UniProtKB/TrEMBL annotation:
The chain crosses the membrane at residues 6-23. One of its GO terms (molecular function) is oxidoreductase activity. This is Retinol dehydrogenase 14-like. The keyword ATP-binding does not apply. InterPro entries: NAD(P)-bd_dom_sf, SDR_fam. The lineage of its organism: Eukaryota, Metazoa, Ecdysozoa, Arthropoda, Hexapoda. It comes from the Eukaryota.
Length: 335
């Protein structure tokens, strides 16, 4: 006969696991899925950072529906590997084209756009998905010398989107999907220090990495301001611009700030609340393809529904950020 203490010791973790599983199932009922299954043959989608995480799952969904997808990735080898995996699963799926794009380099962006314009007559949907999260104490910069989050997450996509505008206009009705985050609500835009030198110097003094990265939050706020301004500028042109928050997802985006032991301590929270990359991609696919939102622009979506941001947006800040971004792209260096 098995001692009661052994039964008790075994029952506790099993009960916890079952409870967490049930909690996750209950939570996941709120994580909406894109139910649209319309054939996308003849449509061209361009996704930045399509080789992994949410970008990869988004590409997979679009290819399954016969869409043509351009994998705009910094590492062309990883883009080809991702395409090979999808093709193995979906031998009859849409066309996939790997292309090299380094959003930390204006020269790379320009070369990329030149090749895209030579090979494609139109772009139906641009999905600005790629992003970086790097500990501030590393003080990484783009090729032009901008702080890495500001330079890649905001300026790189700002420049890329504007250079591709002709191809998007040819495809109208077309869409631009900007992947942001509710972390934008923790962001701040200081025009006297867009490269956050103060925060970086403080991070260097402290050492290590913090789970809250103001560089990332600020860049997500800039994404939101950019999308709002772009939607306003393109109103009545046939190009819809919308923001997406994928939610808290299990991707490698926060690989620098979340260590292996965090997964042990935070396992119950992660199991109950963290989405898979596939679940996180659902709202991106929804905003890229669903006919129910055609003509709607300047909106923020989460779980395939409109989301009301808690951030108090300022039209003057929106206009100034656009103008300053144009000046910085033109100058090709921090001012």
């Amino acid at each position: 006969m098995v001692p009661s203490t052994v039964v008790y010791v075994a029952a506790v973790p099993i009960s916890v696991i079952v409870a967490l599983g049930l909690l996750r199932k209950w939570r996941s009922r709120k994580w909406a899925s894109c139910v649209s299954n319309t054939c996308l043959r003849g449509k061209t989608f361009l996704i930045t950072g399509a080789n992994s995480g949410i970008g990869y799952e988004t590409a997979k969904s679009l290819v399954r529906r016969k869409g043509r997808v351009i994998f705009a990735c910094r590492d062309i080898a990883k883009a080809k590997e991702a395409i090979a995996l999808i093709r193995k699963e979906q031998p009859l799926g849409g066309e996939m084209i790997p292309m090299q794009l380094d959003l930390s380099s204006f020269e790379s962006i320009e070369k990329f756009v030149e090749i895209v314009k030579a090979g494609f007559h139109k772009i139906d949907v641009l999905i600005n998905n790629a992003g970086v999260v790097v500990p501030l104490n590393q003080d990484l910069k783009t090729k032009e010398g901008f702080e890495i989050h500001f330079g890649v997450n905001h300026l790189g996509h700002f420049y890329l989107t504007n250079l591709l505008m002709d191809l998007l206009k040819r495809a109208t009705p077309s869409r631009i999907v900007v992947v942001s985050s509710t972390l934008h609500e923790r962001g701040n835009i200081n025009f006297d220090d867009l490269n956050i030198r103060k925060e970086i110097e403080q991070a260097k003094k402290k050492g290590g990495s913090s789970r809250h990265n103001p560089g990332y939050s600020n860049s997500k706020l800039m994404n939101a301001y950019f999308a709002r301004a772009l939607a306003c500028n393109l109103r009545n042109t046939g190009i819809d611009v919308n923001l997406v928050c994928p939610g808290f997802c299990a991707t490698n985006l926060f690989r620098y700030s979340i260590k292996w032991y965090h997964y042990i301590f935070m396992a119950p929270i992660l199991i109950a609340f963290m989405k898979t990359a596939k679940q996180g991609s659902e709202t991106v696919v929804f905003c890229a393809t669903d006919h129910s939102i055609e003509g709607k622009t300047g909106k923020f979506y989460r779980d395939c529904a409109e989301y009301n941001s808690k951030y108090n947006f300022d039209k003057d800040v929106e206009t100034k950020l656009w103008n300053v971004s144009e000046e910085l792209v033109k100058a090709r260096k921090p001012l």
